[in-house]
Amino acid sequence: YIPTWNSLFRRINPTRILEIGSFEGRSSVYIIETICEEKPIELYCIDIWEGSGSEHNDYDMSIVESNFDSNVGIARNSAKHECKLKKIKSQSFPALLSLINKNEQFDFIYVDACHKACSVLRDAVLSYELLADGGVMVFDDYLWNDFDDLALSPKIGLDAFTSCYRKEISYIGEAPISQLWICKGTNAYKKYCDLT
Description:
seven-stranded mixed sheet; alpha/beta
């Protein structure tokens, strides 16, 4: 994904970033290493670090959280510009509601948390309220499906979200097939979001 993400970040140049589902910090580290090369950023990371289903059964989540702290710490210490990090250890629902109540806004939101359709839909709707006009939201694992029950996969939730918000969003066509990229705004932001 790195070449397409590099292209995305060059175009949107975000300063305030929200990540929902941080795990060991791989995407957080990439964000810090890429954007803090050019300017300071604020990065909010939400994760419960307790796992969210069978996909995490083989992990000791206390080690996963410790790895996140270490990986992100190394990236921040090595960065050319400052990364103000806000680590929020919480379920996404209360954390997002708290950010909404504080009137926070973000230029870029990355969603890779619980994969159940209802959870993904809730994260999408609440995150949309936090997304600045013209901001970009990326959903990971759009086509992920390791279960016979489709309600345990992100796609149904994301399809419901994009159906309901279709007149308020633009799609970014350069996304990898396993991800869904949207921009808040339609025609007014289409040129800004068109990466193809």
